[in-house]
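Extended Data, panel c. Modelled sequence:
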Amino acid sequence: MSNREERWEALRMYLWPAGAPPEAASSWAGDGAEPSPSDADELQQRGQEMQSRGEELALKGAELQLRGQELQLAGEE
């Protein structure tokens, strides 16, 4: 299996966890065809969920960074 195939497989398993039919992705992936409307809707929804999660993680990271700076300042006093 090539590196590209391995990456695709990892992405496919992430987007379609066990129990969900991965055939929805493999039916159009790699053959140059566009996803069906239902596939596109699912991909868009998952993309929005991942974006929302990314925003949550960015906020949490900023909070942790601020807390680290506060602790550093307290340690210098």
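The CA atoms of residues 16 and 22 lie 6 Å apart. This feature is highlighted in the accompanying rendering.
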